[in-house]
Amino acid sequence: MTNLLLIDAGTIEWSRAQFALTAIYHWLFVPLTLGLAVIMGIMETCYYRTKNNFWKDTAKFWQKLFGINFAMGIATGIILEFEFGTNWSNYSWFVGDIFGAPLAVEGIVAFFMESTFVAVMFFGWNKVSRGFHLASTWLTGLGATISAWWILVANAWMQHPVGCEFNPDTMRHEMVSFADVALSPFAVSKFCHTVTSAWIIGAVFCVGVCCWYLMKKRETKMALESLKIGAIVGLVATLLAAATGHKAGQDVAQVQPMKLAAMEALYNGGTDVGLTAIAWVNPFSQPDYENEESAPLRIDMPYALSFMATNDFHGYVPGINDLLNGYTKPDGTREPSVDEKIERGKKAIAALADYRKARQEGLPVDSLRAELATINENMKYFGYGYIKDKAQVVPYIPINFWAFRIMVGVGCLLILFFAIVLAGVYKWPAKLWQKNDISALPNWHYWIAIALIPLAYIASESGWLVAEFGRQPWTIQDMLPTWVAVSDLHSSSVIITFFLFLILFTTMLAVEISILLKQIKKGPDYSS
Amino acid sequence: MTYEFLQQYWWFIVSLLGALLVFLLFVQGANSLARSLGNTEEGRRLVFNSTGRKWEFTFTTLVTFGGAFFASFPLFYSTSFGGAYWLWMIILFTFVLQAVSYEFQNKIGNVLGPRTFQFFLFLNGIVGPLLLGGAVSTFFEGSNFVVEKSNLVNAGALTPVISHWGNASHGLDALLNPWILVFGFAVVFLARTLGILYIINNVADEDIRRRGVVGLKVNAAAFVVLFVVYLIHLLLKDGFAYNEAGIISVEVEVSQQLPPDVVSPRPVVDRCRARSLRHR
User: Fold this and answer.
1) Could you read off the pLDDT of B133-150 as tens digits, one per residue?
2) What SS3 state is found at A479?
3) Is the dihedral of CA B213, B215, B220, B225 positive or negative?
4) Chain B contact for A80 (CB, 8 A cutoff)
5) Neighbour count for residue A343 (Cβ, 10 Å)
6) Is some CB atom of chain B closer than 8 A to the CB atom of A288?
7) N or C end of chain A: which has fewer CB within 10 A?
8) Among candidates B52, B23, B17, B45, which has minimal Cα distance to B191?
9) What is the DSSP letter of A334?
10) Do the domain assignments include residue B114?
11) Given A72, A352, A515, which is nearest B153 (Cβ)?
12) Residue in chain A nearest B266 by alpha carbon
């Protein structure tokens, strides 16, 4: 077995921390870009149709806020791309043939499109026709969305590798079907859920800023009109995010059952499983899933998890212990235990070592059919060959459990919030809003809207925590654990860059927030 | 289309992107000269605002260059980026500073003050081209690394990582090689030459143009000298060769041949070892 001792354990942990840091910061800026793109696109469409300068000023104001945020998204994004090479060099080699492709397409197609039209959007007012400018604004958003598409294709592939084949001669996975990778159903639902959740961030931000103006009794017309658009986008996006989230959850149940079990703190599975509404899972320690029947103080919605995972109220959902010890699926096939998978992974690795040795000694492929057969037969569990103890394949349950609940909880709260805001804007039901005007409510109403901005961000980041912590220890599901994906670096180098990035990103975030606040305080520039 | 053809084809694409990137480094070149071109605050702002409309293209090309390398030459990507860690990290760092500086420099409430952001742009203007040039120059000068794909499965391997950098400085060693610096500075002066040409054509300010014309001669001359010197060095230096076992070594004349045990090929197909001249 490969000796792992000479890889500094710190290198793995700090590399993970650095990637997580960059990704978390990246996701502070990107959803606002995607969300505001839709909102300002709608506003500029209003300008195009009405030719009313009010809409032009409104669109320009939101575009200014968009611009302040845009650069940071790009800056953190480039680091993510290069960190695959700098910190995960083995990974980059092992699957670069597949994983590199969507990244390259993203750069060549989407990113260029976005950068070109964003320049027209900022500098093109009064220089290009109104129609062309409107198209540029929408194309900027479309470019950002296509960009997100390719990145999410890449991410989805790591969660559920498809369309590839292992080549024992080149020692890497090679793409056999680009269409399978690019149109993987897992990627499609991931994309839909992520992008609609990004629209929510844009909408919450828009509504929050408008509420601040209403509270200050400034820019009332712009605030009210923007509030309308923000709330409509928000309500549509939250409902879509809920629907796409359901689909994404089903996908996880299919291809990453361990992630689902960790999200639900489901230690022992079965049929007719309820969805945990709340339970006590200590946030700071991994629960004793082997000996506890279920998490304490658990209140669940009967049958809901079975239904969510299998579309059948009586469907079978495996728990953590079932996945560790093996279980029989409803169709009668047996899912091997993790120990069996480890054995088979080791077989694949040993056969591959033999094969390579024989090839280097000049033996022809024909004489190595037995080794090739062993490799192919066990390749599915290749990554398990690097697992030493079955407990390593259980992700950290508390983060998954709580992050999932924060995401869903805040999501539900936001559906309610946007519905109320819309009801207020359109004064429905009329009786209730007779005495109350949404532009003249007591201040605490507006504060709630403003407080929801950071809360929505927390929910959005929580979604990524579930997606990424839930697949630990895998860099690529069942194929490559993090400790085999890493670069050959000393932890000190990674620690230094981690803190350099931490200081850089935090400073720049502080600067961005400060500029955004000043810009909001200043308000829109009116053309006449 | 054979694998060989695709490799050549991709190499052409990556080279084209690299060439475009160098051309677009005029943004960095002009930023590094903003102080001398515009000696007033307004002059400097003219320069920065002028490059501020083009920086996305340089940046996007850099991203695409990285993505194309990842997709087409993953072994290079993983070995160079994971190995020459610090070299690439510093490049990235200065480009991140640059990306935010344009947007933030003149905004109210930018906390650090416009001067700080202008300094970031200047820093990227020098360090970006220098290190990118240095990184490209390692193609010619060689680097110290070992690739052993069997590490992934060999019981006796020290680690499962296939690419190892030969020293602990992780890429900074490249900057100790004077020839790499020569090429790096050639790129810096090329970027500055392009930057001045761009500014002369893009900024309607007589003062800036006059100073640009003066600076143009100095920077263009520096570029030509450094580039020609490097070119001569490249034509005269010993080349690299690889044998059937995949071992890369410096090709030396017969009279200078190293003792056989030093270059004895090991029966390992995917093993390659590149040595820079310093290690002869």
Assistant:
1) 998 898 888 888 888 888
2) coil
3) positive
4) no
5) 16
6) no
7) C
8) B23
9) E
10) yes
11) A352
12) A360
pLDDT tens digit sequence for A25-66: 999 999 999 999 999 999 999 999 999 999 999 999 999 999
Inter-chain CB proximity B75 and A96 less than 8 Å = yes
Structural domain harbouring B45: 3-141+171-237
Of A229, A140, A205, whose CA–CA distance to A422 is shortest? A229
What amino acid occupies position A92? S
CB contact, 8 Å: A171 with chain B? yes
Looking at the complex, does the CB of residue B154 fall below 8 Å from at least one CB of chain A?
Answer: yes
Q: Which two tokens stand for residue A36?
A: 């505001």
Contact call for residues A173 and A167 (beta carbons, < 8 A): yes
Cβ atoms < 10 Å from Cβ of B259: 7
Q: What is the ipTM of this complex?
A: 0.89
Q: How many structural domains is chain B composed of?
A: 1
pLDDT of residue B272 exceeding 50: no
Q: CB of A372 within 8 Å of any CB in chain B?
A: no
Sorting pLDDT into bands at 50, 70 and 90, what band is A389? very high
Is B153 part of a structural domain of the chain?
no
Is A74's pLDDT higher than 90?
no
Residue B242 lies in a domain: no
With an 8 Å Cβ cutoff, are A504 and B97 in contact? yes
User: H or E stretch including A224?
Assistant: helix A220-255
Distance from the B28 Cα atom to the nearest Cα atom in chain A, whole angstroms: 16
Cα distances from A368 to residues A351, B53, B140, in angstroms, run 10, 60, 39
pLDDT of B268 reads 33
pLDDT for A6 equals 55
Maximum Cα interatomic distance, chain A, rounded to a whole number of Å? 89
Where along chain A do its domains lie?
A: 33-183+489-500
Sign of torsion over alpha carbons A514, A118, A147, A456? positive
